[in-house]
């Protein structure tokens, strides 16, 4: 019985070896009696599927970095920065409402373009420049101010410390406005920029909390300031990878 069991074990092992040899040779489920020399050489094997083109690969540039990365630190934010590069268009449409640019101004010291509340906030946080532009529509005027700081942390601090007001900018047919009457204001920041608006009536009447049109003009101005800063970041991000800005 022991000898018989040993013989059976030998047969099973032999069967496994035979199957392994057939599969390795690529013969499928039936063993082949042909010698290995009859298999096709590598030169005889088809290089690609008939009628199918060879795959092609296109080099795609990497996606641009986040725009905020380029406008959050003065060391990376190197694009030209002037009132002209920030407020480029004479006519703009914001949220479906058309505005006409009336005047622009640059304040290197920042404080001369801000009233007593905002001026010290800008000064103690080392404001580099304050760019202003006034836009008008339908008896309304809004001055947009973009203040430049060294980094995003400082701009965020200015937003939190904000006290009124930005000085409204007259000119280009817009009379002195928002000097001695109530007007609508906003304050925000993006990257190393803090931006402010002051909006009111060009006829000298106050814009109280019930003046929804003046309030909307202020919000439109804030939206436009954000869009201009964001565009600046997108253009620099795209240039960094050789792509077109979105």
Automatic annotation (TrEMBL):
Domain of life of the native organism: Bacteria
Ranges where the record places region Disordered: 25-75
Name the UniProt record assigns to this protein: Uncharacterized protein
